[in-house]
Each structure stands twice: as C-alpha cells, then as structure tokens.
C-alpha cells in the first residue's frame, strides 16, 4: 500500500523533536511548519503574552503569539501517527527486545499481534486467536505473526496502526477513552474527566461530530480549490494565448523596423556616395577653372609687359 511505502522511506529523525531530541509527544505546528513537543514549547511560551514575538528554534522565523498562546497552535496529528508507526516498526523489528504478551497474565514472549486486543500475544494466545477466529473472536481482525513483521513480509502501515489505536486512551486519565474534541484547544482530543479539570468551560464536541464537520469543511475547501484550479488553468491558457499574440506582434514589428532601417541605411549610403562624387566633381571643376584663370592672368600680364615695352621703344 502507498502508506506502507511512504513510511519505509521516512527517516526516524523526522519524527524527533529538535528541542528534546526524542520522539514527538503531542507536537504543536508552527506557521513555519516546524513542529515541537508541547511540553518543550511550554517553558518557551511561559513569559510571553498575546502579540509578543517568538522565534522558531530551528529557522528563527518570527511568530506573533496568537490569542490563547500555546493552546491556540494546532496539533500535528499526521506526525503523531507517523511517530507511532515508526516506533512500532522499531519495536517489532528489534530482535534484541523482548516483547511480553498483553493478552494474558503469563507475560510470556510474544509471537504475534492482534489489533483488537491492543498489542502483542504469546504463542498460546496467538494459537487461540487462530483456532477460534470464526466463532468466539469473530469480531477480531486476522492476527499478524510477529516473525512476518520482523522479516519484512508484513509492514506496519498507517492502516494497521489505526487498528491498534481504534480506542485511544487519555494520557491524563488512562482508564478513559478519548471521545471528545476540545474546540477551544483547536481540536485536541480529551476524555470526559478532562472537561472537569484542564478543560473546564471549554467547548467540547463528540469526536465523530467534529470529524464530520471537518470532513464537510475539507470537502467544501476542496471544491473551492478545484474551482480555483479550473479558473487558474483558464487564466493560464488565456495568458498563454495573449503571450503568443504579443510575441507574434513583437516579431512582426521587429521585422518591419529591421526592414525600414535597412532601407533607410541603404538610402543614406547611396546619398553619401552621391554627395562625395558631387563634391569631388566640384573640386575638380574648381581646380580646372583655377588653372585656366591662372593662364589667362599670365597672358594678360605678358601682354601688358609687351605693350609697355612697345611704348617705351616709340619714345626712344
């Protein structure tokens, strides 16, 4: 099953509190998603009031103390179950640990497991379960042979563990079953006796009622989430279409600008070459005109010199 495969790949340190370095005991979840045992956080919250700042011991993210203080933080029930699964696996697969029968008073070494009986069974109790499984013990699920668990043939999954925790007991009142959920304490499971002690004047509901309410709330939120996903996908498709159109338009404008730029550059280049030719032609014309003008002036000068010489000869 998927749950068995998942648990097999979880490191046991994942279910250890970073403060006490022991398996989680009633872990509280911080907004940064780090979790710690409630008893470990209690001294840290002792001198803090609502609105004060508390830093996560792991990542140092700041948390404003909510109304209700430590009790207002949610319990991490998933990690609680994972911790139990890993502890069961370590207990069952530890060949050096002697497990005594919990089905009789002989306290002999265990040979199997029965979720209905709540734990380990010796060989006699195990055989009794197998023999009378269809009559006296028909309400008991099939027993699990301990050697199959130790060899890895059978995995202690979340589903298997839930059978062993079918009737969870109160830690403060072990003789009582946890039948109530304290709404004031964010869903903490309590027994009847707790309502007369630590949870006096707290609002408590039957676990099945709270579970039904939470199930309906989750289904409603799931529907809202699906609608958000549908809208997001629609918006994403629309944005993708717009992006493609904009990309096409940009490419078209870029091509037009490139074409116009090249045409303008060619025209400028042609005009420049024409201007250079025209300028060179004018320079040549001026140079030729200058030579002719020099020759004309030279002739006039020579002519005047000859005229003066002629007049001088006549006077003599």
UniProtKB/TrEMBL annotation:
Species of provenance: Holothuria leucospilota
Sorted alphabetically, which Pfam families does this protein's record hold? zf-C3HC4 (PF00097)
Q: Which InterPro entries match?
A: TRIM45/56/19-like (IPR047153), Znf_C3HC4_RING-type (IPR018957), Znf_RING (IPR001841), Znf_RING/FYVE/PHD (IPR013083), Znf_RING_CS (IPR017907)
Q: Which residues form a coiled coil?
A: 215-314
Please state every residue range assigned to the domain named RING-type: 17-60
The protein's name in its UniProt record = E3 ubiquitin-protein ligase TRIM56
What is the phylogenetic placement of the source species in the record? Answer: Eukaryota, Metazoa, Echinodermata, Eleutherozoa, Echinozoa
A GO molecular function for this record? Answer: zinc ion binding
Name the keywords, alphabetized: Coiled coil, Metal-binding, Zinc, Zinc-finger
